[in-house]
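Hi R.,

Here's the chain you asked about this morning:
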Amino acid sequence: MIEKEKRIQAERAIEAKKATAASATAKEAAAAAITAEVETQNSLSQLEDDQLEQNLHNELNLELRALEKKKAHLANQLATRKRTAEQAQKLAEAKRIVVEMQTEI
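And the predicted structure, written out as tokens:
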């Protein structure tokens, strides 16, 4: 009878150890799953951050191109206005010379 009780206690101890081991294994598995999920979320977050940065870069690049085109257009306008002003001065000088020549006649 004592041996039977010892055997039952030993079996219970073994079962408790198995349950503890299973619980520890389950906890480790849960921790590993959580770690994997966090790593996946971090990876996705990094991808999203990279995509947002790339979108911002593309947007800024487009704005830069637009500003460069506007600058070129304004430079062309300025050159045209300078030529117009120079031609107007030449015309005014020519008219002044003609008037002087007419007054001499």
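The chain has a mean pLDDT of 85.

Let me know if you need anything else.
M.
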